[in-house]
Automatic annotation (TrEMBL):
<protein>
    <submittedName>
        <fullName>Uncharacterized protein</fullName>
    </submittedName>
</protein>
Length: 242
């Protein structure tokens, strides 16, 4: 255990020396954990439903070693609010190239008898789906978007006026008159509702953020897409009527 912790510390210092010249303004190291804790919960939940397939060999059991490997999430921050879209893409592309390891040597293709190639691909796909998930140690890039103070004020004002108009319309239909509001609460979030793909991407980003040192604020949106995001303002208004 002591050797594993010392190795992590050494790797963190090496990463700091590598990332600082690349423009990172802050570099943090998360808490050490074992390999089995590096797989997102959503992937683990899907693996619970796997069932053996007739004719497909079961996945080999992993050996338990006396010295399990330790890991930690390294988080680096780059301010990109002053960069143009193309400058962000160039910077991210450079970081990906810098972090790319040498690809593993390709295995020699196996010559199969006619008619067996499709069947072998099917069996390999089934075997892959039954194997336990492996932690992904590739660099992950997440983008935090936030509104400026002027944008928040303008969006809040517009949302309030719209919510007030809807409340007055509802009160008028009931023969009531609105008094002063008793509760006012705006919330900012991304437009992910009603789109399952967006919801899954958003959930994946939140899971990745759990191991980082960054705390997402209520008026911030996280995404794995560097393009512009659209904020949605929800306004809760409570009125007394007469």
């Amino acid at each position: 255990m002591e050797l594993g912790l010392a190795k992590l510390k050494k790797q963190f210092e090496a990463a700091r020396e590598w990332l600082t010249p690349l423009g990172a303004t802050q570099i943090d190291c998360g808490e050490p954990h074992f390999s089995e804790h590096a797989v997102p919960d959503s992937v683990k939940n899907l693996q619970r439903f796997k069932r053996p397939i007739p004719g497909v060999p079961a996945s080999p059991e992993k050996k338990v070693t006396d010295n399990p490997e330790l890991h930690a999430v390294l988080t680096a921050y780059w301010p990109i609010d002053s960069l143009r879209a193309e400058e962000v893409l160039i910077m991210v592309d450079r970081l990906k190239i810098e972090a790319t390891e040498e690809p593993p040597a390709e295995e020699e293709p196996v010559n199969l008898a006619p008619g067996l190639e499709t069947q072998m691909h099917y069996i390999q796909a089934m075997q892959a789906s039954m194997q336990d998930p492996e932690p992904d140690f590739k660099p992950q890039f997440l983008y935090i978007s936030r509104l400026s103070d002027a944008q928040q004020i303008q969006a809040t004002r517009e949302a309030y006026l719209k919510a007030q108009a809807e409340a007055e319309k509802l009160a008028k239909s009931l023969g009531k008159k609105l008094l002063e509001p008793s509760f006012v609460h705006p919330t900012f979030n991304s437009r992910t509702s009603g789109n399952s793909q967006r919801l899954m991407k958003h959930q994946r980003c939140l899971e990745l953020l759990e191991d980082c040192s960054y705390y997402l604020q209520e008026d911030e949106i996280i995404s794995d897409d560097p393009r512009s995001v659209e904020f949605q303002v929800n306004f809760s208004l409570h009125y007394y009527c007469e």
